[in-house]
C-alpha cells in the first residue's frame, strides 16, 4: 500500500506531466507529417494506396528493359568509294511522319550505295505547315552523325543539281519488296532520284550495315536545330517538376476515322465528330462494333484516361504536361480530376505561339515528352513511337502506353469501379515490369534482363 505522501506526490506530478506528454505527442506528429504531397516517383507506404487500392505503377520492380544494342554504335565497314548516284528523300505528313519516312530513307540510301542530299518535306495542306528540314533539325549535326554510315551532302555537282530528280514513289507498295530490284535501276539510269519510302517496309532482311545506318540516322543524327531547341528548353523549364507528359488523343477526325460510337459525349462533340466523319467513315454497329472495340481500336476518352491513371496510382495532384494538338474534345473529363495541367499555349507567350508552324509545335511536344519525368500515351502513333524510342535510348524507363484493348474487354465483361481499376492495374503492371508494349525496332534495341 502506498503511503499518503507517496500517493500525493504521484497524483500531483501526473497532473503536471499529462499535458506535457500530450503536447509532445502533438508536436511529434505535426513535425513528422509531410509538408508537401509525396513525389509520384516515391514508393508509397503500405497504407498509402490510390482510391482504387492500386499502388504506384512507377514503383514496381522491373524484370526486363529495352536498351540500345551496342553493335550498331561501333565502327561500321567503310562504304564503297564510288556511289551509284544521289537520292533525295521526300517526306509527307506531320513532323513525326516526316521523321519516320526520313529514317527509312536513310537506310535505303545506304542499301543502294547512294549519296543522300538533304530531304524535302512535302507537307499536306491538312497540317498547315511550310517548314523544311533545316527549319526543324540541325543540318550540320545530321551530316556529322551519319558520317561513316551514309554520305550526306548539302550540295551536288552543278550538272546534276540543275535538273529535277526522277520521282520514285513507293508509298503504295504493300508487303515485302526489294529496293535493289525496284529502285536501283532508276538510280543508275537517272543518277538523281527523289524517293518516297514505303509506309510499312520490313527491315529484318536488311544487311547489318544497313540496319546500323537506320539506327544511327534515326536515333543519334536527328537533333532539333538550336533555335527550336532553345524554345523547347524554355518550355521545359517552365513546367513545374516533377511532371508527367501525357499524349492524349481524342480529336474529332481521329474519333471519326476510328468508326467507334460514343454515347456519353456532349452534343457539341457529337456534332463535330459527325462533321468530320464523311461518307466512308460510318459508325460500326452490332457484332462488328463490339469486335472492333475489343481489339483496342477505339480512342480513350479524357475521362477514361483519368480513370486509368488513378487506377495506376498516379496522384491527382501530379503536374501534367498535355502534349497534344488543337481540337481535343471532352477535356473537362480529365481536368476535373487532374487539375495541375499545362500546355504550350498556357506557358509560352501569345506571340511565340502564334508565330510557330505545326511542325515547330510538334517538335516542342516531342522534346518535352522525351525529357519528362514520365511519359504516358493513350495512342501509339508516329510521335509515340519516336518518343518511347528516344526515352529508351536515354534510359528513361517510366514510359507507358495505355491499353485500349484491356479497357474495352474488361468493360465489355461488365467490370466497373474498383473491379475495373484492379483489372487495369494488373494489365498495365504486367506490361511495365516486363518492358512490353513499346514496339521498339528489335535491330536497334536489345532486351536486357534485370
From TrEMBL:
InterPro entries (UniProt xref): FucosylTrfase_pln, GDP-Fuc_O-FucTrfase
Metabolic or biological pathway: Glycan metabolism
MF terms in GO: glycosyltransferase activity
Principal subcellular localization: membrane
Topology of this chain in the membrane: Single-pass type II membrane protein
Family classification: Belongs to the glycosyltransferase GT106 family.
Name of the molecule in the record: O-fucosyltransferase family protein
Organism annotation: Triticum urartu
Amino acid at each position: 500500500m502506498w503511503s499518503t505522501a507517496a500517493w500525493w506526490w504521484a497524483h500531483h506530478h501526473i497532473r503536471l506531466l499529462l499535458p506535457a506528454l500530450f503536447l509532445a505527442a502533438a508536436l511529434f506528429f505535426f513535425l513528422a507529417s509531410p509538408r508537401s504531397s509525396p513525389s509520384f516517383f516515391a514508393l508509397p507506404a503500405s497504407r498509402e494506396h490510390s482510391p482504387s487500392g492500386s499502388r504506384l505503377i512507377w514503383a514496381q520492380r522491373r524484370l526486363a528493359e529495352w536498351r540500345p544494342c551496342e553493335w550498331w554504335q561501333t565502327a561500321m565497314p567503310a562504304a564503297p568509294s564510288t556511289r551509284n548516284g544521289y537520292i533525295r528523300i521526300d517526306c509527307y505528313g506531320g513532323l513525326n511522319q516526316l521523321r519516320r519516312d526520313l529514317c527509312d530513307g536513310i537506310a535505303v540510301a545506304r542499301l543502294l550505295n547512294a549519296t543522300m542530299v538533304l530531304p524535302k518535306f512535302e507537307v499536306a495542306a491538312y497540317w498547315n505547315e511550310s517548314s523544311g528540314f533545316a527549319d526543324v533539325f540541325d543540318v550540320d549535326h545530321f551530316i556529322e552523325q551519319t558520317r561513316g554510315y551514309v554520305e550526306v551532302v548539302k550540295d551536288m555537282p552543278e550538272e546534276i543539281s540543275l535538273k529535277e530528280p526522277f520521282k520514285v514513289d513507293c508509298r503504295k507498295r504493300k508487303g515485302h519488296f526489294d529496293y535493289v530490284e525496284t529502285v536501283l535501276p532508276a538510280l543508275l539510269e537517272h543518277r538523281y532520284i527523289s524517293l518516297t519510302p514505303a509506309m510499312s517496309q520490313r527491315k529484318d532482311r536488311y544487311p547489318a550495315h544497313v540496319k546500323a545506318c537506320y539506327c544511327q540516322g534515326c536515333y543519334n543524327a536527328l537533333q532539333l536545330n538550336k533555335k527550336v531547341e532553345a524554345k523547347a528548353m524554355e518550355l521545359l523549364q517552365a513546367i513545374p517538376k516533377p511532371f508527367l507528359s501525357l499524349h492524349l488523343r481524342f480529336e474529332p477526325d481521329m474519333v471519326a476515322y476510328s468508326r467507334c460510337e460514343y454515347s456519353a459525349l456532349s452534343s457539341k462533340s457529337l456534332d463535330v465528330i459527325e462533321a468530320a466523319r464523311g461518307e466512308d467513315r460510318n459508325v460500326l454497329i452490332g457484332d462488328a462494333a463490339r469486335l472492333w472495340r475489343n481489339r483496342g481500336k477505339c480512342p480513350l476518352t479524357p475521362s477514361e484516361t483519368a480513370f486509368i491513371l488513378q487506377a495506376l496510382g498516379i496522384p491527382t495532384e501530379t503536374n501534367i504536361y498535355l502534349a497534344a494538338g488543337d481540337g481535343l474534345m471532352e477535356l473537362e473529363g480529365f481536368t476535373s480530376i487532374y487539375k495541375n495541367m499545362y500546355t504550350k499555349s498556357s506557358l509560352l507567350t501569345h506571340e511565340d505561339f502564334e508565330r510557330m508552324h505545326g511542325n515547330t509545335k510538334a517538335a516542342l511536344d516531342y522534346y518535352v515528352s522525351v525529357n519528362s519525368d514520365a511519359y504516358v500515351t493513350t495512342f501509339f502513333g508516329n510521335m509515340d513511337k519516336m518518343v518511347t524510342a528516344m526515352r529508351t535510348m536515354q534510359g528513361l524507363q517510366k514510359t507507358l502506353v495505355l491499353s485500349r484493348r484491356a479497357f474495352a474487354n474488361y468493360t465489355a465483361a461488365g467490370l466497373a469501379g474498383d473491379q475495373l481499376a484492379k483489372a487495369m492495374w494488373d494489365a498495365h503492371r504486367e506490361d511495365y515490369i516486363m518492358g512490353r508494349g513499346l514496339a521498339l525496332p528489335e535491330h536497334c534495341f536489345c532486351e536486357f534482363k534485370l
